[in-house]
Amino acid sequence: MQEPVTLCDDAGPIAKVAFDKFYDKVPSMLHSFYPLHTVTVTNKDPYFVTHTIKSLLRKRNKLMHKSRVAEAQSLTKRIRESIAIQAKVTFSSSRRGSKELWEKVRQVTGKNKTSSRPMPVTVQQLNRHFSAISTDPYYLPPPTKATVTHLHCTTTLLKTVPSVP
Prior knowledge:
Blueprint: H1 13-33, H2 51-65, H3 69-92, H4 99-109, H5 123-133, H6 150-160
Helix pairs in contact: 2-3
């Protein structure tokens, strides 16, 4: 059984002992009611994932693995609401349609701002390049075929065939 902690009015050695006993017991009591666990949020996580959302996601996954689907679904609702709140916080400070808002959207989606700069290559240079890579300087056309005219063959054939009475 634990001995009770008493405090006295004078700030002598008794108060120091009582204070030390108090500080010895408080951390263990805190850890029993509020256990510590570590959640790491990295830059690879989406912008809306906070340490709270990530811990809720882990808890939901554990519940799903234990087939406690009803509890997991209620956590899913809390996660959805937390993500919506985080999105509102992210975008609420910017005016609708403003450059600042679109900059945040590009930052969230990971896309960079595209600029229309003139191409350093002209159309004629592109045509010369592609014609150079699509032709073979060592190409030789195939030799022409020697063909027989069909008219000469048919007339010779008709002269040799006897006529039918």
